[in-house]
Structure to design on (1160 residues):
């Protein structure tokens, strides 16, 4: 299979996945009990004492009286143009809300991704580099400890100590790098554990392999072995991990932005779910699936560059 | 004195429930909480005021919402015909330089001041007032539109003179003109849809203009440099002092407290009672004022179990109001002594009808046939005495305390926090036994908004003498007969256990000492016009 | 019915003879030795012993909470509000004078029940889908694996939240949401195992003998293929506890005063500045339980692999 074909099939698959996410949420949300039109009218403020005629009129205006399949078709067409309808809570266009929220989430998400990678790699490498068995054991247990921490608690502790008690960092606000640090750290912890775990394991395996002994026999030190061979071999799993990381960050944003009272995609999701604001939930899920698909697509396209075997077979060797 | 809102529009009612129970609104503080900025030195211009606000109101239009979180913002954007003196409760000139009431109390003539303009450059004239009121009555007759019940129309005599006419005498209208809900909007406002107005597309003549409103994030107000028409009792006669005011929405109480202590905001709204003690004399102060209007109650649906007077009366007796205040509130709050709060005009003390009497409550339930069951919850014909309390999420801490108290007399209160739209829907459909609708307004007419059986009547009250009392108080033309009608109404409500008053609400804000001259107006709304940063 | 192979297929603790065993040619460990080793494993490491004790304790909380605390989780003493942790109140008290330890103990049954329910949903759903996809192949396989792929392509938290939006709030709904979200991963593992087992001689023989699929699936394939899926369930236990407490922290669980662990933290958040124990101690409980579960499941997994 040649590279172009590989790229095309991967892209089609990503598109399929986003379409499916839209269809899935459309189905889930339309099968809901409760009348979205009545909810919309009462939720938007100022429309008490709804008469059945009013509801029927709005229903017709919004096209909710058409057959489900027609509704699905036009909703899909709108979604392709970036239109997910209006929020039931505020009446604002969903696409506008999401567009407003994305930069803030990208900021903490991006910083969290960098932190997770840097710290995760440091821990993973250090755990294999150190000669002290005690330290090694300690470094190896950090990831499993870190994944067990509820991120809402980590956030609350950081707020309480670093922000409220010692005034080191602001806990709120969306201005300046300073206000990004605490939420990004909270968000980075599970990812950091993931990176450290995967990298640590991969390096460990490399060091156990027979050729490692050969390299050692040439007099190369542990460090040389690690950096020369280990990290190169760890590249594929590390790239895979980035994909997983992005997924976990998108989810992590919900808790972190709630804890830190930060505006963003996560906060929008949290409040939309609380208010059963269906169009917003759908918009967020589709946009997140799109982001997730794009990242995974990029990763798929990077694999062949890293590993020639994939280029020739078109199949991912590691899963 | 006046504040906002009554409750029938869903959003309003929701707001009300929220404000009532989360942390009720404040009002005309007679404790000298710094209204007007006297004694704080010479005001300084400039700077940005950062406010930590408790909720994103999701609608800012003063005609459509009465939520505290919205009104604290819109008050600085929209001026009223009149202003209410927070110290005396007197109505004083604002956009109207003078006003007169006809002898029969049904017509009100206003003469507008010269030179006031809306932020779109249009003059504040009689036609604009007429457009504002004419559009307001098109909205469902609750909340601010409810102030205009019986509205016949506005007659424009000339550019500066107009007369508002009602079917009958309207004792509450003049006070209502000082509220934000009856604030005057530029005619251009009404070309926007109701939803767009909610998002901030309304144009007022206030000292600030709305710069932007980002959902779940912030509202930013910018100063209007040419403002020169504050109320007749304002200290600052010109433009506002802050360049910018930023309201950030921080729903978590603990996070607001922390934001204030760590200097990330200068005003934290709606402090939790437990956090108040932190802010005394350490560079911060507490600004608190009791709220006029209907005290936060347990509102009873007179259907199902609560159709029985004895069960309702047992609830009335089964609440230990002092205990409630001691356990979940601070000294800024007081036990309820009537259906109306003690700072409401025409208030009378009925604390003898609100005495805690657990034994009496149990006896009433016994006689109603509800006998203690195995787990302490009473049972009748095999059915447990369980009442559903519909709550718009997030649930305030006080609710669990009430639940505990009623458990002691054998009533199982099931707390049901639901998403706000669901709350509105279920409240409309009467799918609840209990809910909490308290309303802040410095006029006893609030009773009519809530308890009149020909209104929305969410509580399924039977038509009766109460309606007559409520109609009498609004058409009364002298204070004495109004007082009699109000007292009769309150007495009737308590004697029939139509509602269970809980505690007197208050609006409690934490304020950094760098904010000078800041206070609340007669209706407990933010008065930012006189405030400045020291 | 004849048993086409000499391999024992009766359900029981014996693992199916997979290719692995044939390759390294080891005989299955004799039963007593294996039992001794499995039981001996915890004793070898204090960490594992501790994990077992923690999980037993929490299981005790869930099953018989009244053995562990005499206090009510729902009614407090107003006079004893905001007591810090001490001998009287192990975890302190909250804004209504309720004992936090009692609430955590009683909350265990809610949290653990939701966890078990979620895992059961994931397990049953995953096993059924995996069996069907792996055994029948062709369009069934294609369709199921497409669905699985879609489910894996939406970030799990968002998928759970979509389901909660559709179902409403409550511990049951949260459990369903988490369970359904995990079905995809389980189905994928199950399918891979089924594909492996399906090629085993005794299964092919059964198919050739004309044994109907509804006998083959439960009798030959399920017992042989379910091992790794059960291991995945064990590994997932800690993560599910964490996910459920996160969702209940966000307010999608049981309404108050139900002492669900995440909800305890959410409620305590309002008093963060004054009463640290309201958030810290319930969170710590979650952390310790998750740590213990993770630790134990990894040991079990390693034991399983070594066997």
């Amino acid at each position: 299979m040649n590279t172009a074909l590989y790229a095309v099939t991967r892209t089609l698959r990503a598109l399929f996945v986003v379409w499916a996410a839209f269809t899935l949420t459309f189905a889930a949300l339309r099968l809901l009990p409760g009348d979205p039109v009545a909810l919309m009218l009462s939720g938007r403020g100022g429309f008490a004492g709804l008469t059945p005629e009013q509801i029927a009129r709005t229903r017709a205006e919004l096209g909710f009286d058409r057959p489900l399949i027609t509704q699905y078709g036009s909703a899909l067409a709108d979604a392709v143009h970036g239109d997910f309808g209006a929020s039931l809570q505020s009446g604002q266009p969903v696409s506008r809300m999401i567009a407003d929220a994305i930069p803030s989430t990208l900021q903490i998400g991006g910083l969290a991704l960098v932190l997770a990678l840097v710290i995760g790699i440091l821990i993973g490498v250090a755990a294999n580099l150190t000669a002290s068995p005690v330290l090694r054991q300690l470094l190896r247990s950090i990831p499993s400890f870190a994944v067990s921490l509820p991120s809402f608690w980590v956030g609350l502790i950081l707020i309480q100590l670093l922000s409220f008690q010692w005034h080191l960092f602001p806990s709120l606000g969306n201005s300046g790098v300073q206000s990004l640090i605490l939420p990004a750290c909270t968000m980075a912890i599970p990812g950091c554990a993931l990176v450290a775990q995967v990298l640590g394991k991969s390096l460990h395996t490399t060091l156990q392999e027979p050729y490692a002994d050969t390299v050692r026999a040439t007099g190369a030190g542990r460090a040389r072995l690690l950096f020369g061979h280990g990290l190169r071999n760890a590249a594929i799993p590390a790239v895979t991990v980035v994909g997983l990381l992005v997924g976990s960050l998108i989810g992590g944003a919900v808790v972190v932005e709630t804890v830190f009272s930060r505006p963003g995609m996560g906060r929008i999701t949290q409040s939309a779910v609380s208010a059963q604001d269906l169009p917003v939930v759908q918009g967020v899920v589709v946009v997140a699936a799109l982001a997730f698909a794009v990242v995974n697509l990029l990763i798929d396209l990077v694999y062949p560059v890293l590993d020639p075997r994939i280029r020739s077979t078109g199949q991912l060797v590691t899963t | 004195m006046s504040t906002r809102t009554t409750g029938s529009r869903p959003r309003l009612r929701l707001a009300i429930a929220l404000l009532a129970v989360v942390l009720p609104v404040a009002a005309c503080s007679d404790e000298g909480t710094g209204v007007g900025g006297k004694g704080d030195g010479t005001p300084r211009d400039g700077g940005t005021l950062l406010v930590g606000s408790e909720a994103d109101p999701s609608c800012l239009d003063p005609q459509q919402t009465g939520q505290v979180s919205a009104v604290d913002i819109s008050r600085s954007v929209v001026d009223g015909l009149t202003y209410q003196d927070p110290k005396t409760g007197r109505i004083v000139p604002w956009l109207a330089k003078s006003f007169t009431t006809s002898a029969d109390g049904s017509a009100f003539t206003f003469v507008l001041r010269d030179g006031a303009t809306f932020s779109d450059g249009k003059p504040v004239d009689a036609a604009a007032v007429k457009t504002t009121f004419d559009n307001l009555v098109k909205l469902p007759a609750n909340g601010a539109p409810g102030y205009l019940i019986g509205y016949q129309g506005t007659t424009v005599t000339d550019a500066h003179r107009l007369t508002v006419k009602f079917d009958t005498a309207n004792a509450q209208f003049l006070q209502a003109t000082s509220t934000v809900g009856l604030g005057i909007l530029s005619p251009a406002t009404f070309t926007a849809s109701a939803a767009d107005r909610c998002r901030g597309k309304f144009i007022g003549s206030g000292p600030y203009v709305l710069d932007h409103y980002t959902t779940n994030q912030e509202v930013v107000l910018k100063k209007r440099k040419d403002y020169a028409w504050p109320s007749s009792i304002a200290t600052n006669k010109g433009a506002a002092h802050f360049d910018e005011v930023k309201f950030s929405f921080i729903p978590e109480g603990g996070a607001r407290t922390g934001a204030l202590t760590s200097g990330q905001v200068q005003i934290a709204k709606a402090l939790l009672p437990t956090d108040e003690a932190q802010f005394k004399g350490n560079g911060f102060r507490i600004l608190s004022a009791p709220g006029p209007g209907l005290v936060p109650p347990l509102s009873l649906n007179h259907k199902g179990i609560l159709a029985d007077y004895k069960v309702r009366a047992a609830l009335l007796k089964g609440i230990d109001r002092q205990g409630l205040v001691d356990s979940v509130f601070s000294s800024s709050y007081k036990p309820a002594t009537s259906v109306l709060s003690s700072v409401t005009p025409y208030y009378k003390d009925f604390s003898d009808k609100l005495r805690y009497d657990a034994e009496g409550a149990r006896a009433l339930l016994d006689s109603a046939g509800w006998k203690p069951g195995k787990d302490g919850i009473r049972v009748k014909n095999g059915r447990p005495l369980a009442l559903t309390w519909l709550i718009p999420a997030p649930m305030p801490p006080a609710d669990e305390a009430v639940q505990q108290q009623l458990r002691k007399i054998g009533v199982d209160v099931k707390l049901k926090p639901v998403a706000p739209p669901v709350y509105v829907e279920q409240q409309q459909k009467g799918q609840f036994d209990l809910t909490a609708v308290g309303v802040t307004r410095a006029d006893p007419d609030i009773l009519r908004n809530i308890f009149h059986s020909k209104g929305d009547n969410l509580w399924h009250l039977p038509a009766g003498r109460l309606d007559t009392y409520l109609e009498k108080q609004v058409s009364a033309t002298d204070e004495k007969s109004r007082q009699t009608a109000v007292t009769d109404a309150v007495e009737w409500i308590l004697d029939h256990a139509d509602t269970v008053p809980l505690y007197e609400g208050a609006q409690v804000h934490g304020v950094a000492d760098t904010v000078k001259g800041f206070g609340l107006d007669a209706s407990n709304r933010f008065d930012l016009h006189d405030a400045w940063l020291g | 019915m004849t048993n086409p192979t000499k391999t024992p297929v009766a359900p029981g603790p014996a693992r199916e003879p997979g290719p692995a065993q044939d390759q390294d040619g080891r005989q299955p460990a004799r039963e007593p030795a294996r039992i001794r080793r499995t039981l001996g494993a915890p004793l070898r490491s204090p960490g594992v012993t501790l994990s077992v004790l923690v999980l037993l304790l929490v299981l005790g909380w869930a099953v018989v909470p009244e053995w562990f605390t005499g206090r009510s989780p729902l009614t407090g003493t107003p006079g004893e509000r905001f007591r810090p942790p001490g001998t009287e109140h192990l975890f302190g008290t909250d804004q209504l004078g309720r004992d936090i330890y009692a609430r955590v103990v009683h909350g265990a049954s809610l949290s653990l029940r939701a966890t078990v329910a979620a895992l059961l949903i994931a397990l049953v759903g995953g096993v059924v889908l995996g069996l069907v996809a792996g055994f029948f192949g062709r369009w069934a396989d294609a369709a199921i694996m497409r669905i699985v792929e879609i489910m894996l392509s939406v970030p799990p938290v968002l998928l759970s939240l979509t389901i909660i939006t559709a179902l409403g709030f409550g511990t049951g709904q949260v459990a369903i949401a988490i369970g359904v979200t995990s079905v995809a991963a389980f189905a994928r593992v199950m399918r891979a195992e089924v594909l492996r087992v399906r090629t085993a001689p005794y299964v092919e023989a059964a198919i050739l003998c004309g044994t109907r699929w509804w006998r083959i699936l439960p009798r030959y394939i399920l017992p042989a293929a379910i091992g790794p899926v059960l291991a995945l369930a064990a590994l997932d236990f800690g993560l599910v506890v964490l996910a459920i407490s996160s969702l209940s922290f966000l307010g999608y669980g049981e309404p108050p005063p139900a002492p669900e662990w995440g909800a305890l933290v959410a409620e305590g958040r309002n008093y963060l500045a004054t009463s640290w124990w309201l958030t810290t101690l319930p969170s710590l409980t979650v952390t310790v339980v998750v740590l213990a579960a993770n630790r134990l499941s990894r040991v079990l997994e390693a034991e399983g692999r070594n066997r």
About this structure: The radius of gyration of chain A is 24 Å. Residues 103-313 of chain A form a domain with the MetI-like fold fold (CATH 1.10.3720.10). The mean pLDDT of chain A is 79. Residues 159 and 171 of chain A are 6 Å apart (CA to CA).
